[in-house]
Amino acid sequence: MADTMATEATAGPQGTKRDFLFLATGAGLAVGTAAVAWPFVASMAPDAATIAAGAPLDVDLSPIQDGQIVNVFWRGKLIFVRKLTEKEVTDMKAVPLSDMIDPASFESRVKKGHDQWLVSYGNCTHLGCVPIGHSGNYEGWSCPCHGSQFDAVGRVRRGPAPTNLPIPPYAFETDTKIKIGEEGGKAAA
Ligand code: FES
Question: What single-letter DSSP state applies at residue 99?
Answer without folding.
Answer: G
